[in-house]
Amino acid sequence: MELIPAFPDGSAVPPRVLAALFDRRFTEAARPSFEPGGQLELSPPPRASVADLVAGLRELLVHAAALAASAGVTLTASGTDPDRCCAQVPLRLTTARYLAMQRQFDRAGPDGRRMMRLTASLQVAVDLQRGPAGREQWLVANLAGPALAAAFANSPRLDGASAGIPGARTRIWQGIEPSRTGYDGRHLDPADPVGAYTAFASAAARLPIPEAAAGAYHLSTLFPPVRPRGGYLEVRYLDAQPPERIATAVTTLAVLLLVPTARRAALELLQPGIGRMPSTRPGRRRGRSSSSWGRRSRGWRTPSGC
Fold first, then answer.
1. How many CA atoms lie less than 13 Å away from 37 in the CB half-sphere?
2. What is the CA radius of gyration of the chain?
3. Which whole number is the average pLDDT over 6-19?
4. Could you give the CA distance from residue 30 to residue 108 in angstroms, rounded to a whole number?
5. What backbone phi and psi angles, to 5 degrees, belong to 215?
6. Torsion of CA 96, 97, 100, 104, to 10 degrees
7. How many CA atoms lie within 13 A of 41 on its CB side?
8. Are 265 and 136 in contact (CB under 8 A)?
9. What SS3 class is residue 171?
10. What percentage of the chain carries pLDDT values higher than 70?
11. Would you place residue 274 in the very low, low, confident or very high pLDDT band (cuts 50, 70, 90)?
12. 213: exposed, middle or buried (C-beta count within 10 Å: 0-12, 13-18, 19+)?
């Protein structure tokens, strides 16, 4: 879960300010880290049930808010920074990784900077099952993405004003080069999911830093809506959620991906839309669901300041 910190005057908060407040109990439970724009990320360990996970996360959110308040900082659970443009939010993590990533994203336009500095998400990790069940999970997690992102959209403001749509964060992701994000469905192939993702990863340009020569590191620089992470799937397309909606969002994903009858019913509804798009892989066809990520809506306001 990612949160957007701000001082009372609306100014951005350097990560060191919050990091200095973390006590041992919070650090061990939340495993906190920071995103490039200073967003606070909480990464609690896996839990055996959704109820346990949600209860633990709510406790962490209360703890985080109390720690932040002691320095006059508020933490906002929103998919986009509601008050600032990225010119007001400097790149806080100036490592070679993030500088190279910013340069790479800049080639396609300003949305890469917006994503890095202004967005926050609720990422849900779900155990990946073996065999056909895992294939079903992968397809449902991806194909249900547009509907779930819309249902849980929580980013109506950007650049200090109305974005004109409830899901500005999703539109930002659609504006980033698809060779690295897969928001055009290029990483999906129901007949060969492993081959499709391998082709997607192989085609993406490696960041011009030494670490990117390693395959595992290169995979960490890809940001599809759902990212395979060994024994689990990392669902990345949900906006950061207010505490009262976290349980619904996580439960919805858990049911769709872990309950066989629900997963197969969802696949029956979603899979007929696959195959409508020509493949970037020779001899293959890829596709996306009829409720695809699609293109930017006409109501999208192009923000300034990046």
1. 27
2. 19
3. 96
4. 34
5. -60, -45
6. 180
7. 15
8. no
9. helix
10. 89
11. low
12. exposed
